[in-house]
Amino acid sequence: MPGQATDAGKVSFCDAKEEIRAELEGLAFCDRQERPGAREQRLNIVWRNVVLMSLLHLGAVYSLVLIPKAMPLTLLWAYFCFLLTALGVTAGAHRLWSHRSYKAKLPLRIFLAAANSMAFQNDIFEWARDHRAHHKYSETDADPHNARRGFFFSHIGWLLVRKHPDVIEKGRKLDVSDLLADPVVQFQRKYYKITVVLMCFVFPTVVPWYIWGESLWNSYFLAAILRYTISLNGTWLVNSAAHMYGNRPYDKHVSPRQNPLVTLGAIGEGFHNYHHTFPFDYSASEFGLNFNPTTWFIDFMCLLGLATDRKRATKAMIEARKAKTGDGSG
């Protein structure tokens, strides 16, 4: 169960005008007016990240022009790489390493680590540590992508500024002994830069060029740049949209929501109110295989004997929680 570090009845989301003003001005946290006397803290912008993310998204927009010029196989390959990328985050860094909601044998962990490097969203250790902080200190300054600071911040802004001191301080107190003990996690962390270059950019680009004669230009922009940008935003929508838009049938006292559109973009991660209520559930949803490609993948790995010990919330547990804390919508 996720720890609630704030009382939802006492700390409300800042309104739309405050969010827009905070995002445009780049000033203090949007809850500064809710806590009189609190020290105003300016955002420490990381301009290198601002430039790189801007160039990446401009490259993705340009990539759209190349779609009609590319071979159909290249487009299919780009989509296949998107699925691999997503699984490296959803089945790997999220459900396996962050929540330990199932167990994976060595070949599967190696595959998921490689797919996670293709995702290029920080190494598994840092991703899982920050995600555990997100659950334990959700919607506080110790939450890396605190949604109370506005849509832009929780979507991409948190990557464009230095981490809040509380994120670093509280993150150091989390138990990450299991991550430190996993040789696959440590190997990926040690060689992260080279694995990212190979898996995120070189491998997706070379395959279409070498096997079916696509131009390197089209391969790079479609299978690497466009695919990477879309996968990033799919993950970020879980932090932003799924914390602001949707219903809360399991726990109306937390901000995460059920968001079907996010579920489509993040291959099963949009059942977010459920996930924050039952974070140990390997399916991250009450509905099992109901458009949850990540759950399909984990179940298939179990059939192959590569995954075991899937954890699930019982039907009785779910219904009891709905009746106690749900908003009555489901």
Identify the strand order in the major beta sheet.
1-2
Mean pLDDT: 89
Percent of residues in beta strands? under 5%
Order of helices and strands: HHHEHHHHHHHHHHHEH
Helix content: 55-70%
Distance between the termini: 20 Å
Low-confidence stretches: 1-40
Class per helix and strand makeup: mainly alpha
Number of strands: 2
How would you sum up the global shape?
globular
Number of helices: 15
The Rg value, from CA coordinates, equals 20 Å
Tally of structural domains: 2
Largest sheet: 2 strands, antiparallel
Give an account of the 3D structure:
With 330 residues, the chain is mainly α. It has two domains: 10-41, no CATH class; 43-325, no CATH class. 57% of the residues lie in helices and 1% in strands. Strands 1-2 form a two-stranded antiparallel sheet. α2 packs across α11 (216-239), α3 crosses α4 (106-119) and α10 crosses α11. It is globular and about 60 Å long.
Q: How would you sum up this structure in a few lines?
A:
With 330 residues, the protein is mostly helical. It has helices spanning 16-25, 47-66, 72-98, 106-119, 124-136, 151-155, 165-171, 177-180, 183-190, 192-212, 216-239, 260-265, 272-277, 293-303, 315-325; strands at residues 103-104, 307-308. The protein folds into 2 domains: 10-41, no CATH class; 43-325, no CATH class.
How are the secondary structure elements laid out?
Layout: H1 16-25, H2 47-66, H3 72-98, E1 103-104, H4 106-119, H5 124-136, H6 151-155, H7 165-171, H8 177-180, H9 183-190, H10 192-212, H11 216-239, H12 260-265, H13 272-277, H14 293-303, E2 307-308, H15 315-325
Antiparallel strand pairs: 1-2
GO biological process, one term: unsaturated fatty acid biosynthetic process
Protein name: Stearoyl-CoA desaturase 5
Keywords: Fatty acid biosynthesis, Fatty acid metabolism, Iron, Lipid biosynthesis, Lipid metabolism, Membrane, Metal-binding, Oxidoreductase, Transmembrane, Transmembrane helix
